[in-house]
Specification:
Number of strands: 15
Distance between the termini: 20 Å
Number of helices: 12
């Protein structure tokens, strides 16, 4: 859901600050649901054209009784499950917070990751609920709540990790064939470390299969998604490494993700933040996210303001 994820345009290419488009394990299901669910929710969005004084979207959502969430079909952040229902850490958090804000119903609008900011600003949906990484380029286009999580990377490697890959430098040193997702920030992290052989695949499941079949030596993704795909697949041919810290210009990078709102809607963002901070303080946030593979290590005190700073 990104320096971390840091190009100025939401397009897929190789870049030293590439945009992350984390993908899902149940990709086919999410893609199949996109058209049908998107069609039913597109007309339910609430207009906030030229909002001033912090915007009035929250009041309109309360009157309407529902909020439409932009999802990117990315496990475990926000996706359509195999049962056809919206799930993931971000929709789960959104259900709780918006109910407390007087908006009892949340509805999904699945789209691809690269369309989330465009879709939000063109009012196809009301909020981005995709665990989107926060960076200065995105902060120039939308406003973010404070992040609900922080994230490092991990590798899918063949059982026993024969090449002893525990860092991006290890991948570069051994000349290993690296794969990652289309538009993932890991492309830039690999390039920064000197990795020469990088290919892209649709999602974590495709990456796992490529490692199992020997087509690549390592698939790189976020720690939670890598752990989840290895666990859920019950593979006997591959394994997940421990967490890996990426480096940019010699400095360690900790990515964080949060909810995004249209720039005028600071009242809604601030109300959302107040509830989010209460959940962080009480420990409720971790309990909501734990079923999706998050641990205490992913909880963060980093603010959106810090990550938006150039």
């Amino acid at each position: 859901m990104a320096p971390p994820q840091g190009n100025t345009s939401e397009v897929t290419h190789h870049s030293s600050g590439g945009i992350r488009r984390r993908s899902l394990l149940a990709g086919v299901v999410a893609l199949g649901a996109t058209g049908a669910i998107g069609a039913t929710t597109a007309c339910s969005r609430v207009s906030t054209a030229e909002a001033t004084d912090g915007g009035h979207l929250l009041e309109r959502l309360r009157a309407k009784g529902s909020v439409t969430l932009g999802l990117a079909g990315e496990q475990p952040y926000g996706y359509i499950g195999r049962d056809g229902k919206m799930t993931g850490s971000a929709p789960t958090i959104a259900r709780v917070i918006f109910k407390r804000l007087g908006v009892p119903k949340v509805e999904p609008f699945p789209t691809d990751f690269g369309s989330l900011i465009v879709g939000l600003n063109s009012q196809q949906f009301d909020v981005v609920a995709a665990g989107m990484y926060i960076n200065p380029e995105r902060c120039a286009k939308v406003i973010f709540a404070d992040p609900e999580y922080q994230m490092l990377d991990a590798f899918v490697v063949r059982k026993g990790n024969p090449l002893k890959l525990h860092s991006y430098k290890d991948i570069a040193r051994t000349g290993a064939k690296m794969a990652t997702g289309v538009g993932y920030a890991e492309i830039g992290y690999g390039e920064e470390a000197g990795v020469k052989n990088i290919t892209t695949l649709p999602d974590q499941l495709a990456g796992l299969l490529a490692v199992e079949q020997g087509r690549v030596d390592v698939f790189v993704g976020t720690a939670v998604t890598v752990r989840n795909v290895v666990r859920d697949s019950k593979t006997t041919k591959a394994e997940a490494t421990g967490e890996v810290t990426p480096y940019v210009k010699g400095k360690p990078v900790i990515d964080v993700g949060g909810f995004a709102f249209r720039t005028p809607e600071t009242n809604l963002r601030d109300a959302f933040n107040r509830e989010l901070h209460k959940m962080k303080k009480s420990g409720e946030l971790l309990e909501l996210m734990r079923p999706f593979g998050f641990t205490k290590d992913q909880m963060t005190k980093i603010t959106a303001k810090e990550k938006c700073r150039p």
